[in-house]
Amino acid sequence: MLQLFFVEDVNSSQLTGDNAHHAERVLRLTVGEEILISDGLGNWAQCAIASVSKKEIGLSILRKDFEAADSNKISVLQALPKSDRAKETVELLTAAGVSTIYPWQSARSIGKDSDKWEIAAIEASKQSRRFHIPKVSTKLDTPSVIKLLNEFDQILICHESAKAKISDVVVSSRNTLIVIGPEGGLTEAELEIFENSGGKVIKLGRPILRSAHAGIAAVSAVSALMRVW
Fold first, then answer.
1. I need a labelling partner for 211 at 20 to 30 A (CA). Which of 110, 153, 158, 204 fits?
2. What is the pLDDT of residues 128-156, one digit of tens each?
3. Packing angle, helices 117-127 and 83-96, rounded to 10
4. Same domain for 101 and 142?
5. pTM of the model
6. Is residue 92 located within the same domain as residue 150?
């Protein structure tokens, strides 16, 4: 499996800085080995390593291409989890293929900040070989979330009180938002806000998932039902 590095320009003939250090010191890549580079916007290239030094990795581009983003975009509004689970949450959502991650300071959120979420999304994109790095918004409060809801034509609210199964509710949509509450659950007021904006309350099955894990389960199910997968 080829290692992926993110660069500003896929026409670049070298890796420098942290990329070069990681390739030479950590991965110990040598001349002749092949890697992938991408700008995180869909453009990518497969390259062979032409030279190796402590500060620079010379590259020979073998082929270039562009991977279009999915036309059916799936985003997640994620209530801030415990700080020790935040990185895992972002990694799972990124690997699942989300378009945008919206950190949300809900009423019962345990976590307080999302400063490192963008870095986690970049690293997870490398690991999962994504050529499109998901966008990570600034932390949102509930009034900001209310304004955001108008941008989506399908809002799915994961909640244990739901009567409808996810497979009975999901329709093909160009712009879907999945709402994941905190460990303590959504408040009645929050649930009402989402439902008043046209949101549909869904159940992910009988077992109750942790907030950090519910997102990847929901994204996976929605992706399959909308034939994104």
1. 153
2. 999 999 999 999 999 999 999 999 999 99
3. 40
4. yes
5. 0.92
6. yes
